[in-house]
Amino acid sequence: MKNLHHTLIFALTALLFAACNPSMQSFKKGDYYEATIKAVRLLRNNPESKNAIEVIQKSYPMELDYERQRINELSISNHPDKFLNIVETYTRLNNLADEISRCPAALELLKPVVFFHTQLQKAEELALDEQYDAAMRLLESNNYLDARLAVQRLEWVKQKNPEYSNIDERVKEAKNLGTLRTVVELKPELHANFDINSKVFYLRLFDFLDKRIEDEYIKFYQPDFAEKIRLKPHEIVTVQFIEFQISNLVEREKESKYESDSIVVGTFTDSDGSEHNVSGTVKASVSLYERELVAKGILEIKIMDYTTNEIIVSQKFPSDYIWKNEWASYNGDERAVPSQILNLSKVKQQMPPAPQEMFLLLSDPILNNATQFLKSYYKKK
């Protein structure tokens, strides 16, 4: 029983040690690099830390062995990025050696630490050609997504060697090929008996796309300019109001009577010469007038693949707008008329908006919904 008690205490102590030692936690997970880094940090704060000493003496040699084995495996593999991965591995080992070298307690335990500067330089020379050649193969597909991958590889080459042959021209070429070109065109409105023009709406929509979608890999063109430069786009966005209608003008009239009592309607003077108010009831007849006009419309946006003419996505945006004109008139004592009706009595009868104005009022909420839809779509491109 006593031995069992001691065993439990030992196990609990070991668990507590591991829980309080982040470097040991990383070590047990097989992350020898992170275990070494965390142990170095502990030693900087406490050079006598037994926990850190125990971990670092195990983790650093195991990290060296692991990464060297990985480099050997990569060297004989056909991995398309094998030299880039070897560069990253040597860089990782050099960073680790540098961290240890700047911690006296860690350096004392592990010296000499191993740097791989010569090996890294040779690997970088091979990786430059590897990444450049891979980028050129990607550009051969003439696919804008492949071109963007090529840009990443070419920019790595440029960052490592700005003087690499034709690198600036190749980066520019890849960015150009990686740009999604979209023509945004307006189709005629489908409606009956109304003289409207949706060009203003289209220009507002295009302005949003052109200025608010901030992505170096997406460009929008109006049809005239696209034709002028003989652009071959990737996608076509068509904008069309497929429905627009205005209801008949509805007019309503309502008669009401109002009265208020305890209202001062006059005064009288008594025999002593004192003046007194005379209260009574006041009345008024009220006429309420209302005119209402309802506009309804539907915008349809289609995004099509230019090469195949297939519809990628299609969305409809319905909306309506209600125009109202309310006013009032009354006969009688205004003190009997409610305040809100008195306010209406100051409003004049108005002429209904013209169809074009109704269309513009209707299109405001549609514009907001349409721009958010397009912004979401191109965010994924």
Verbal overview:
The chain has helices at 2-20, 22-28, 32-45, 50-75, 82-101, 104-110, 117-139, 144-160, 167-177, 199-212, 223-228, 339-344, 355-379; strands spanning 180-186, 218-221, 235-246, 250-269, 275-305, 311-332. By secondary structure, the protein is of the alpha/beta class. A hairpin with a 5-residue loop joins strand 4 and strand 5. The longest helix has 26 residues, at 50-75.
Helix percent reads: 40-55%
Q: Mean of the pLDDT scores?
A: 90
User: Tally the helices: what do you get?
Assistant: 13
- The low-confidence runs, each spanning 5 or more residues with pLDDT under 50, are 4-19
Strand content: 25-35%
The SSE string, one letter per element, is: HHHHHHHHHEHEHEEEEHH
Judging from the principal axes of the Cα atoms, what is the shape? elongated
Q: Find the count of extended strands (DSSP E, 2+ residues).
A: 6
**Radius of gyration from the CA trace?**
40 Å
Major sheet characteristics:
6 strands, mixed
The secondary structure category is alpha/beta
What is the terminal separation in angstroms? 68 Å
Question: Could you outline the blueprint of secondary structure elements for this entry?
Answer:
Blueprint: H1 2-20, H2 22-28, H3 32-45, H4 50-75, H5 82-101, H6 104-110, H7 117-139, H8 144-160, H9 167-177, E1 180-186, H10 199-212, E2 218-221, H11 223-228, E3 235-246, E4 250-269, E5 275-305, E6 311-332, H12 339-344, H13 355-379
Parallel strand pairs: 1-2, 1-3
Antiparallel strand pairs: 3-5, 4-5, 5-6
Helix pairs in contact: 2-3, 3-4, 4-5, 5-7, 7-8, 8-9, 10-13
